[in-house]
Write a structure and sequence with these properties.
Order of helices and strands of chain A: EHHEEEHEHEE
Oligomer: homodimer
CATH superfamily of the largest domain in chain A: Gcn5-related N-acetyltransferase (GNAT)
Largest interface: A-B, 26 and 26 residues
CATH architecture of the largest domain in chain A: 3-Layer(aba) Sandwich
Number of domains of chain A: 2
Radius of gyration of chain A: 16 Å
CATH class of the largest domain in chain A: Alpha Beta
Strand order of the largest sheet of chain A: 1-2-3-4-5-7-6
CATH topology of the largest domain in chain A: Aminopeptidase
Shape of chain A: globular
Distance between the termini of chain A: 23 Å
Strand content of chain A: 25-35%
């Protein structure tokens, strides 16, 4: 059974002041991000709290009681008609491999599609330790479109994936999505 | 004689409140940018005024008396070690083709290099009307690295260029750069 099908779990799309610290802790504990990246992740939540939707950053949190289990941050790419970016997707370390990331990303795709988005971009590193990340995106229909050599650091390329959201929705049935 | 060699012209790197409107007018008058893009250009200056260097946006203005002749906006890419982005470079329409854009970009490259940057990225559109823009970058040593199909709009791809700033500086002599 996938984690996001558990009856006590719900999705939340508003951002709370407490989320800044939650995001900081979760991204730091994941072991995937450098301190500067952790700071950026938290900053996007602060930006959203300060500016609201005008920040351009949208969030989805997977939550159970007071616990945030994972989250995604995404938004439209300014200056484009139908292109959106997935900025962050992180799941609590002990909950990996249970389908929570897929559930989050499917809901992001639904939101993007509903908002007239047609292409969702994600970027990740070429380093071996991001192989599970790259497989995760590819398994969900994301195709590698470009590689920018040495982008993050010498030997650490940026891989850009895109998914065209051009077909009718086939993810979780709508009634399983609980937004408060 | 290139525009940036004129004795009365100077470079300015601080950002003034009046620059927000100047940038808005200049980018709108250029004929190259959609209204949403013009808004983003002005927003980066506002962001810089509000947050200072912490905004991550650095500016260089080419100025003569009270007139801004052109400007560039650039900054380090968060989460990378040595990668920088050129966000905007715009020259007043009637001053195009006089070397002002090259002068601005060379100064940006010097600043990036001095700040430990090694790669400068620029992005532009694949549309025919951006051919002069693409030739401008290629003439200054920028190599196309990736194409993201339909990124900006259907039929309007994003072309990503990069220049490796790995060699000693050969641009304008330092004494010709006047910063107040």
């Amino acid at each position: 059974m996938s984690a996001h099908a558990q009856p006590s779990m719900f999705w939340r799309e508003d951002v709370l002041p407490s989320d800044v610290a939650v995001i900081q802790d979760m991204t730091a504990a994941s072991g995937f991000f450098r301190p500067a990246e952790v700071a950026v992740a938290a900053e996007l939540a602060s930006e959203r709290l300060a500016k609201g939707a005008a920040s351009g950053y949208l969030f989805i949190f997977a939550q159970e009681g007071p616990q945030v289990l994972g989250y995604a941050c995404y938004g439209p790419i300014a200056g484009t008609l139908h292109s959106w970016d997935l900025y962050w997707i992180v799941v609590q370390k002990h909950l990996r491999g249970q389908g929570l990331g897929s559930g989050l990303l499917e809901l992001v795709e639904q939101r993007v599609w509903s908002a007239d988005g047609e292409r969702l971009y994600v970027e990740t590193s070429s380093l071996p330790r991001y192989r599970p990340t790259r497989r995760f995106y590819q398994s969900l229909g994301y195709a590698p479109q470009a590689v920018l050599a040495d982008f993050y650091a010498p030997g650490d390329d940026k891989v850009i994936y895109v998914k065209r959201l051009s077909r009718p929705w086939t993810g979780q049935p709508a009634q399983k999505v609980h937004c408060r």
